[in-house]
Amino acid sequence: MRLLVTGGAGFIGSNFVHQTLASRPDVEVTVLDLFTYAGSRSALAPVADRISIVEGDIADRELVDSLVSTSDAVVHFAAESHNDNSLAEPWPFVHTNVVGTFSLLEAVRRHDVRYHHISTDEVYGDLELDDPAKFTESTPYNPSSPYSSTKASSDLLVRAWVRSFGVRATISNCSNNYGPYQHVEKFIPRQITNLIDGIRPRLYGAGQNVRDWIHVWDHNDAVWTILDRGEIGETYLIGANGEHDNRTVVQLILQAFGRDADDFDQVTDRPGHDLRYAIDSSRLRKELGWAPKYESFTDGLASTIEWYRSHEDWWRHQKERTEQGYRERGEKTIAP
Ligand code: NAD
Ligand code: DAU
Q1: For strand 177-178 and strand 214-215, is the pairing parallel, antiparallel, or unpaired?
Q2: Domain total of the chain
Q3: I need a surface site. Which of 108, 140, 214, 270 has the fewest CB within 10 A?
Q4: Residue 106: which domain range?
Q5: Contact assessment for residue 234 and residue 170, using Cβ atoms and an 8 Å cutoff
Q6: Cα 322 from Cα 331, distance rounded (Å)
Q7: Quick check: CB of 39 below 6 Å from ligand 1?
Q8: What is the dihedral of CA 298, 189, 121, 293, to 10 degrees?
Q9: Is the pLDDT of residue 257 over 90?
Q10: Residue from 6, 54, 68, 81 to probe ligand 1 pocket by mutation (most atoms less than 8 Å from CB)
Q11: 100-125 pLDDT, tens per residue?
């Protein structure tokens, strides 16, 4: 199988490439990635001689057409992925997430190539903190941020291309991922690398917001399950019952570093901050037989902390620029 992986130099995409090469000797991987600030050549360095890497924009329709024409399937991870960035500068999100997805859909339509679209639970908006409900495949779309609205737009394009043109596509909407190779702008790696650097973790607001954590390797196993057995035209939610509020996550990280539970700073909250995400993944489990392997969040967190401790060469050059960006956008301590 000739597989085109967009965004294969990013967090989830690079893990997907590593996992695919380790478990699927029959798959030839081509990565298409623009190598934005979030794309990492060194994340692919261990496997660079076993894959093709093309540097380019998914919105470049000629380039995409030629790569898709020689592929059997496309897995589309490429995106602008960070909510805080989308609040500061939305245009790259519209360009990559909407126009880029359109360009891929047109190419898979022309060449009748199987397409899997990676999306997020954020398209459903948020849930109340005290609501026992979870998102399901039939929850109405209600995105809050520029990031999530562009992801929702791209999902809707996929659905329309399936219905109108018979494109052979599936969609997955996953909850918050953690694990190796995640950019230090994101919540968990930011706090781990802060603590390595002797900086107190930074909690937005009171830290009551809840995210539903899943290890990136479980997400990618689910993607392969959908590629293997998913029904064309269908959407599958991916989640591992990993709900924790942000304060608890920070305290688990502090505990792993042997620090006091209140050794963090509360900083300016994110505007429009979604309260809670929670995924009901029973469809994927019942219909396709998938189940997560990394069920202990504490163990997954411990191995992720160990990974950041032993891969400082991978993240060090991103750290100061990232923190500078947070400062420039006005992040301020509101309570010690
Ligand atoms: P990431 O930001 O780490 O990586 C994105 C990759 O896309 C980078 O390598 C970047 O260089 C590349 N890219 C950006 N614009 C591009 C363009 N125009 N053309 C080609 N490549 C481009 O993101 P991630 O966290 O790995 O997320 C991957 C996908 O998974 C995204 O679609 C995201 O919406 C989705 N998702 C992420 C999470 C999560 O928790 N991180 C959860 C659910 C879904
Ligand atoms: O739910 C899936 C989504 O998860 C993906 O679609 C996104 O691509 C991914 O970035 C992630 O979005 P979040 O906005 O939930 O992730 P982030 O890591 O930015 O923040 C997680 C939570 O932690 C959120 O409630 C904001 C909070 N936070 C974040 C940072 C960076 C803090 O409290 N402090 C911080 O320093």
Answers
A1: parallel
A2: 1
A3: 140
A4: 2-177+213-238
A5: yes
A6: 12
A7: yes
A8: -40
A9: yes
A10: 81
A11: 999 999 999 999 999 999 999 999 99
- For residue 136, what are its two tokens? 């399901």
Q: Is residue 160 part of a domain?
A: yes
SS3 label, residue 319: helix
Do 128 and 276 contact (CB within 8 A), yes or no?
yes
Answer whether residue 52 is part of any domain: yes
Of 237, 251, 258, nearest in space to 188 by CA: 251
Question: Catalytic residue numbers?
Answer: 121-122, 147
Q: Ligand 1 in contact with 77 (CB < 6 A)?
A: yes
Q: Is 186 in the pocket of ligand 2 (CB under 6 A)?
A: yes
* Residue 211 neighbours by CB distance under 10 Å: 21
Residue 140 lies in a domain: yes
- CATH of residue 37's domain is 3.40.50.720
pTM: 0.99
CA distance 204 to 212: 17
Strands (E), the chain: 2-6, 28-33, 52-55, 73-76, 114-120, 169-174, 177-178, 202-204, 210-212, 214-215, 235-238, 243-245, 265-267, 333-335
Are 82 and 186 within 8 A, CB to CB? yes
**Residue 118 placed within a domain:** yes
Cα–Cα distance, 180 to 199 (Å, whole number): 21
How far apart are the CA of 250 and the centre of ligand 2, in A? 13
* Amino acid at site 131: D
Composition of the chain by helix, strand, coil, percent to 5: 45, 20, 35
- 333-335 and 265-267 beta bridge pairing: antiparallel
Residue 336 — pLDDT band, cuts 50, 70, 90? confident
Annotate 48-68 with DSSP letters as a single string: GGGSEEEE--TT-HHHHHHHH
pLDDT of 295 strictly over 90: no
Q: For CA atoms 48, 323, 307, 6, give the dihedral sign.
A: negative
d(CA 32, CA 76) in angstroms, rounded, equals: 9
- The residue-averaged pLDDT of 314-325 equals 98
